[in-house]
């Protein structure tokens, strides 16, 4: 301890100066003291000092110098038979002590660096754990960790709120809240791990059911297998989606029923004219079958004349670039599967538009689906979607290089012959657009089909 504090502290130059001074002092003492007491062993002390700061070849030079000084100032006679072995032992002792001290110093320096690295790693680990703890606790998603038996080991505040837990969740079983996790296999080794997402029904502690989106993974620890789950309550999203779907269905149904009623009225009108003409025939007067036919026509006319209130969508401000981005995500797999190249062109400063978001998306999807069918027989399949401003309207154009349209004048009529399925797609699309002030038209061209949707921009 004293050696370390007094002789080895300081810079490399300071230690060397101390060692040289000590060597000079020992040599002077050995020269001044006359007697049979050799003082050469004292050179071991400066050799310890130089061993902590010098390289091996430098230590060898200092050891040789100390050997010369020890031999020069002691009172022992020197001869070949006794002097050389003695000097060899002196040198070996001095050099060995220096090398030993050098290795001790290197080991000590390495240990100090290792301890410092461990300290830094420990500090970094504690900081990361603290950041992770803050992240988990502040996360709006419920985060739960459980062991192999399903016992909850950790749960954040969002999990307590979502599951309406009375008291603390740790110690309770996760299967009582999320029964579907019971079917997740427990990993037996590191190769049997699961990382996936599923949608399942959950149950709060109050016995209230909810729909949950669960992102979970399994992993191994020294204490056994663990399951970590991030849970999102999607009940409100489901409710909103179902209500919007119902509203969309009712809107489309009214439009379809209106189209059917219109066609029935036309048919009944034609039959009614024929019936009136036949009524002039005296042979049919008083005929029960003829009167029944007249009653049937009147009944059909009454059914067809029921006035369905023209539906008006709840138009709102729609972020058109965002909606087009969602459309791009939705149709990408369909176009890739059909091997159709899509070209997107959109102005950078498109404004918001007045529309029903779900209805407008359905119109877009209907046009894309029509283009996919029209391009099925072509080798070079291209669909171009363009969004731009023109005067005081926002135009969204769908253009393909498919087989085109043979009778453009019949495009927007219901129940047209030769149409795919019921022939109501474009009729319903136009009726839907008109409910919030939009319009769709077909633009004739030499090849393919070109539809243009016109929407009203939101005035800033």
TrEMBL record:
<keyword id="KW-0808">Transferase</keyword>
<feature type="transmembrane region" description="Helical">
    <location>
        <begin position="15"/>
        <end position="34"/>
    </location>
</feature>
<feature type="transmembrane region" description="Helical">
    <location>
        <begin position="82"/>
        <end position="101"/>
    </location>
</feature>
<dbReference type="InterPro" id="IPR004358">
    <property type="entry name" value="Sig_transdc_His_kin-like_C"/>
</dbReference>
<dbReference type="Pfam" id="PF02518">
    <property type="entry name" value="HATPase_c"/>
</dbReference>
<dbReference type="InterPro" id="IPR005467">
    <property type="entry name" value="His_kinase_dom"/>
</dbReference>
<protein>
    <recommendedName>
        <fullName>histidine kinase</fullName>
        <ecNumber>2.7.13.3</ecNumber>
    </recommendedName>
</protein>
<dbReference type="GO" id="GO:0005524">
    <property type="term" value="F:ATP binding"/>
</dbReference>
<dbReference type="GO" id="GO:0000156">
    <property type="term" value="F:phosphorelay response regulator activity"/>
</dbReference>
<keyword id="KW-0902">Two-component regulatory system</keyword>
<feature type="domain" description="Histidine kinase">
    <location>
        <begin position="259"/>
        <end position="459"/>
    </location>
</feature>
<keyword id="KW-0547">Nucleotide-binding</keyword>
<dbReference type="InterPro" id="IPR003594">
    <property type="entry name" value="HATPase_dom"/>
</dbReference>
<dbReference type="GO" id="GO:0030295">
    <property type="term" value="F:protein kinase activator activity"/>
</dbReference>
<keyword id="KW-0812">Transmembrane</keyword>
<feature type="transmembrane region" description="Helical">
    <location>
        <begin position="41"/>
        <end position="70"/>
    </location>
</feature>
<keyword id="KW-0418">Kinase</keyword>
<dbReference type="GO" id="GO:0004673">
    <property type="term" value="F:protein histidine kinase activity"/>
</dbReference>
<dbReference type="InterPro" id="IPR000014">
    <property type="entry name" value="PAS"/>
</dbReference>
<dbReference type="GO" id="GO:0007234">
    <property type="term" value="P:osmosensory signaling via phosphorelay pathway"/>
</dbReference>
<keyword id="KW-1133">Transmembrane helix</keyword>
<dbReference type="InterPro" id="IPR035965">
    <property type="entry name" value="PAS-like_dom_sf"/>
</dbReference>
<dbReference type="Pfam" id="PF13188">
    <property type="entry name" value="PAS_8"/>
</dbReference>
<keyword id="KW-0472">Membrane</keyword>
<keyword id="KW-0067">ATP-binding</keyword>
<dbReference type="GO" id="GO:0016020">
    <property type="term" value="C:membrane"/>
</dbReference>
<dbReference type="InterPro" id="IPR036890">
    <property type="entry name" value="HATPase_C_sf"/>
</dbReference>
<feature type="domain" description="PAS">
    <location>
        <begin position="128"/>
        <end position="164"/>
    </location>
</feature>
<dbReference type="InterPro" id="IPR050351">
    <property type="entry name" value="BphY/WalK/GraS-like"/>
</dbReference>
